[in-house]
Amino acid sequence: MKEKIQYFPITAFSIIMGLSGISIAFAKFYHMQWLPRIFYDTFLFFTLGLFLFFVFMYGKKAILHFEEVKTDFNHRIRINFFSAITISFLLLSIAFMFYWPILSLVFWWIGVLSHTIIMLYTISFWIQHNFEIHFMNPAWFIPVVGNILVPVAGVEYMPKLFSFIYFAIGFFFWIILFAIFLNRAIFHHQMPQKFIPTLFILIAPPAIGFIAYIRIAQSWDGFALFLLFIAYFFTVLLLFLYKSFVKIRFYISWWAFTFPIMAITIASVVAFQVSHENFFKYLAFMFLGIALFIIGLVTWKTLLMIKAGEMCVEEE
Q: Which of 108, 178, 294, 301 could make a disulfide contact with 250, Cβ separation 3.0–4.6 Å?
């Protein structure tokens, strides 16, 4: 057991991102009176319990194997997944926003403060180290996505100006990193199989950006539509890239499929709320169905991985 804790992966927190996303999606569907509350309650408290378990496990790893945590924190790829912890706080804050506002506020402040520190450290890490282009992959977007998430619950707890600061930082770095990623994807070697599922992360920034912009500006305008349809474009593009996802070996990074699909699902519900166009309602149900299928698939694969004893092993 001690050896297993030593290799408990920081990437496991991407599971919490996916499950938090589906909890928020079920909350939206419940508030729209499209689904009963039981789905929201079940996923919400299961996700919270699993998050606390992961925090305990990684905390225990930090106490017993601090050098391993330092290695993760200074790794050129795994450093980006530390933001998954802070993003999990922000997502749980959104999920509990109308269920238990006090807990939501606590999670939000923990998420904002810790994410700000890790985000600044990660960007300084990028600047201070010499990176070859092949190190670039969509996991680099994770710290950026966290910034765009801040306003979703943040408009309830702080002035809108505060939320817009994080929205602006997230939007700026999304554009910059996407240009770098496109250069890497088109003009250089293909990504390793382990990181191919992270391509789905491309959907998240515009989808969350749309939700955050609606929360801040309360405006169904051209910029909102720009963000929404860019998110839809990336979703369709990834469907055309389906051959890249067929027959690849399962890794925990497969959970990267889940959160972005949840984001586009929630964005579709929000689009229906503000526009009352049934087109977005149908899209929301379609994306929810796809998301539930993907959640079921990766959960099954993860359980098989745990059963085979491959969950907590030394990574390359």
A: 301
